[in-house]
Design goal:
Blueprint lengths: L1 E3 L2 E4 L5 H13 L8 E4 L5 E4 L17 H18 L19 E3 L8 E4 L2 E5 L6 E3 L1 H12 L9 H15 L5 H26 L2 H18 L6
Length: 228
């Protein structure tokens, strides 16, 4: 990936046309916080508009855990999902598996490390390469895992439970917290399998460590323990 002025250039793949279709739907829905697809370079790289701001990394700054960021993230994910509905029935051409029920196109990595902030407020989201059709709760569960958070973070178990409820309410989901948590467990088990496979293919032991952490978190959450 590289930047050229106000454009970001990225290696394209067979999934890129679908990603660009999704981004165009978002732009047509007046969602400002997504990269605009600008076509391709002469050597076949995709061209995307650059989103100015800060993309936080671990350890997350304290402002990531504000109620305003949680609300803004849940609302943005809802807008992305609603805009994506016309593509939910497309079965081929995605980098990630299509999962049933295919209600929307899931971002599949909607988390603070892929969100863009200006002055501590959420303004956008990047890195749509692994998007694919799936259930709303599949995507929302991963945001909940990262923003409650259900991994290491600054809140008590009771505070995390309240934040999980807030994620659901702000998004506008009628799922219960128990349904959300059950989906988190399935999501983490799936992510662990993906990370183990990537570790083997790429010879990257750090990914295998991530897989171990996801499985530990999944087992703990399945037992009803929201804090490490």
């Amino acid at each position: 990936m590289s930047r050229r002025g106000n454009e970001v250039l990225r290696t394209a793949g067979p999934w890129t046309p679908n990603v660009h279709r999704l981004l165009r739907l978002c732009v047509d829905s007046d969602i400002d916080g997504v990269p605009r697809p600008l076509g391709y370079t002469a050597d076949g790289r995709e061209r995307l508009s650059f989103l100015p701001g800060t993309v936080p990394a671990y350890p997350m700054p304290d402002w990531v855990w504000s109620a305003e960021v949680l609300d803004d993230a849940a609302r943005l994910l809802r807008r992305l999902h609603d805009a994506s509905v016309p593509l939910a029935g497309v079965r081929a051409g995605w980098r990630s598996p299509v999962r049933q029920p295919a209600e929307v196109v899931c971002h599949n990595d909607f988390a603070p490390y892929n969100l863009v902030f200006l002055d501590g407020r959420l303004t956008g989201v990047i890195d749509f390469d692994y998007c694919s059709p799936g259930a709303r709760l599949w995507d929302l569960s991963y945001l909940a895992y990262r923003i409650a958070p259900l991994e290491a973070g600054p809140f008590t178990a009771g505070q995390r439970a309240a934040r999980l409820h807030r994620v659901l309410t702000t998004y506008g989901s009628d799922a219960s917290v128990d349904e959300l948590l059950a989906t988190v467990v399935r999501r983490l088990d799936d992510l662990a399998d993906f990370s183990d496979d990537a570790a083997a293919r790429l010879g990257n032991p750090e990914l295998a460590d991530h897989a171990t952490g996801y499985r530990k978190d999944a087992a703990r959450i399945a037992e009803g323990r929201l804090a490490p």
